[in-house]
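Chapter review: from sequence to fold.
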Amino acid sequence: MYAIIETGGKQFRVEEGTKILVDRMAADVNSEVSLDKVLMVGGAELKVGAPYVENAKVTATVLDHVRGDKILVFKKWRRNDSRKLQGHRQDYTAILVKAIEA
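The token string follows.
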């Protein structure tokens, strides 16, 4: 069984035992989180939500809070001798999907 969930404005296809990186969540490490924005549940029977599947949720465990690789943002304005270099590191939460209920 698999599910398509929405968290942090992004969509992920998950199965039981899947480890994914999502945008930073306000949850402690080793705590259980319940993701109830389930867009679709697949398996023997396909359930598609409008926009979300009713009474469906995905239970996951928070593994760690990590930061992504540094991304350099470079902007240059022509004919002005002006430029700006800025770095960015995105905060992520690593989660492990435990169960899918539909």
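Two observations follow directly from the output. Residues 2-101 form one domain. The chain has one domain: 2-101.
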